Amino acid sequence: MDTIVVNHISKSFGDKKAVRDIFFEVRPGEIFGLLGPNGSGKTTSLRIILDIYQPDTGSISILNGPMTEEKLNNIGYLPEERGLYQEVEVGKNLAYLASLKGLTKEQIDERLPKWLERFDLTEHQKKKSKELSKGMQQKAQLIATLIHEPEIIIIDEPFSALDPVNTQLVKDLLIELRNQGKTIIMCTHQMNQVEQLCDRLVLVDEGKVLLSGTLKEVRERFSSNQVLLQVESDLPADLPEIENSERQGLYLRLTLKDGSDPQELLKHLIDQGVKVDSFEIAMPTLDEIFISVVKQGKNGYEEDN
Amino acid sequence: MKKIISVSKYEYLHHVSKTRFWLILFGVPLAMLAIFAITFLLSYLSFDKSPVAYIDRANLISQPQSLPENQGFFNDTIPLLAYQDESTARADVENGTLQAYFVIPSDFQSTYTINFFANKQVDSDVTSEIRSFIHENLLLRTNIEHLDRIEAGSVISLQSLDGSELSDGNGMGRILVPILISVLYFILVRSGSGYLLQSLVEEKQNRTMEIMITSMTPKQLMLGKIIGNLGLGFTQIAVWLVLGGLAIFLFRDRLAFLGNLTLSGSYLAISILTMLLSFIVVAGLFTIIGATMSSMEEGNSISGLIILPMMMPFYFVSTYFSNPNGLIPRILSYIPISAPLSLSLRMTFTTVPTWEILLIFAILLVSIVLVFWISGKAFRRGLLEYNKRLNLRDIFAKEVK
Asked: Interface pTM (ipTM) of the complex?
């Protein structure tokens, strides 16, 4: 059973259509990437999932039904706009936010020190939030998101303001949480993080779904039937699989004929005694896919209107 | 319920932990005390208590002035001393023993004029004391019985045709109670709702709002905040009442006139209940403001529009004296914001029919439901609008839950 089902939701604010038709499902124990450019409808979709807004059409199912207070307590949410009481000590800030998620004082007293320790914030807990650096505030915010040990974690740009060391810390944490069986929805612009973390993803723009699937499916769908080859000698002239060849620095970018199999080409090269240093099926990066799909989507959207 | 308590506890402790709260809590009574003390000291120091002499050439004075036994701050009496000749009196004014003297000429009975001599302007208390002194002695010559009653004047009791009392002519003293109620109400609204507005705008500005409303329902959040901030207002009032009570106890001899005030239990109960219900309406209105404004400055300027009608009954206070059941006092009692002051003023001067009191409570309760319905909408719609100020059309736009 899927943890979250977003069933063709739409939402308008006055004349502005924030979400036109968004649909996806998030499975238990996966990291799901909700991707899209700024203003694409991601945050509105998250707020609909969280029952802050009601959709105009469509529906949401969380843990097999509508949102309840009990389910809200089982969700950890890191909003895009970070929020801590600036004049209040970090420790008190977190204790209060944890109490709102239903934790008792004893539970808070037991868990908070561990989280502060893990995020290296123990010695800063008496400081007012405004005295912390952006990165530290981000870590404190993550504690507020996770301290009640939710089953569902929804995080919007979890890596913003983090240095490489802390980015790795958060990545390790997300993987650990997934391994514990938690379901995670992650919104981010950092495609390299998506490539490393997400099991499945959906790409939205202009309030519509442009693309969805597992990372592998998406990349394969956009593979351009090209091979990147690094060889020490020239290529034999009579390679039947190749339609075109182009040099890119150390590499040769070979475009294969329709229906040709890259494995056949490799076998052919080796049979002919070519010394192959590297042979790579040229998959587009998620960044490239993102840009090309959003561009295409925009053109399509303009044609629609 | 647990979350409502969490929120109200946090709201309460958050503000109580701020220096500002304590400054207001003790600063306001201290400032009032300081103003009172300075004014009192200045007038006391500038008040000339040296005697005034009189030379009675008309043989008018048959009963010399009797000075009260306890001379105090509030009831200083200037001694009026009989002198035989004017030159001695003049010399004593020159050397400062006397502050002035006056001569009752032999033809006083035909002119009713006395001649007053002084080197400087005297206080009005001195002239009024001389007036009543002469008045008293003039009356003594007429041999009228019950002179003391004539001196004290009549008690006028006004009755309406339906038998309910309208006024006993002693309204100015009784008006103290509604004034006190309005001051308390004003403080409750200013501090309680002020803190409420501040905390809402602050949570919008520091972006904690989104976490709050994904942890509880907007209704729980609103209730928690209102209870917490109402508690703050009550704490202030309680502390000030205790300080005020202490002051009254310490100066009880000087404040004997307060002894005439009697408060009935139903009067207090109705006044306090009206105040509470009205506060909840105002809190709801402030929630709407807090949810729709994006900065404290905007919120403050709009909240002034709510504070203004609260004090409206004072602008028409003469109408409450003359006709407490008239149109204006009635209308102002039906408006939830001005109801506490209006009703308590009316109840001071007349008997307000029970059906009307019930009607006012009903209006207040309906207003609470209405205001909370709107503020619920504004809350959901406006809480996450960090940079935009919402208008009424936005609040009622169809997308709101």
From this structure: 0.75
Residues of B in contact with A81 (CB under 8 A): 207, 210, 386
Q: Provide the whole-model pTM.
A: 0.71
Give residue-wise pLDDT tens across range B97-125.
888 998 988 888 888 888 888 888 877 77
Does the distance separating the beta carbons of A81 and B215 come in below 8 Å?
Answer: no
Residue A14 to residue B216, Cβ atoms within 8 A: no
Answer yes or no: do A97 and B203 touch at CB < 8 A.
Answer: no
Superfamily of domain A4-219: P-loop containing nucleotide triphosphate hydrolases (3.40.50.300)
Boundaries of domain holding B87: 46-154
| Residue A65 predicted with pLDDT over 50 | yes
Distance of residue B28 Cα from the nearest chain A Cα, in angstroms: 25
Crossing angle, helix B218-250 and helix B194-205, to 10 degrees?
A: 140
- The residue among B154, B187, B205 that closes a domain is B154
Q: CA-to-CA distance for B125 and B139, rounded, in angstroms? A: 21
CB neighbour burial string for A266-276, b if at least 16 within 10 angstroms, e if fewer: bebbeeeebee
Picking from A196, A188, A112, the residue whose alpha carbon sits closest to that of residue A147 is: A112
What are the residues of chain B with a beta carbon less than 8 Å away from any beta carbon of chain A? 2-3, 6-7, 10, 14, 202-203, 206-217, 380, 384, 386, 394, 397, 399, 401
Asked whether residue B72 falls in the same domain as residue B172, the answer is no
Is residue A7 predicted with pLDDT exceeding 90? yes
B172 pLDDT exceeds 60? Answer: no
Q: How confident is the model at residue B396 (pLDDT cuts 50, 70, 90)?
A: low
In A, minimum Cα distance to B213 occurs at A52
User: Closest chain B residue to A56 measured between Cα atoms?
Assistant: B399
Q: In this structure, what DSSP letter does residue B259 have?
A: G
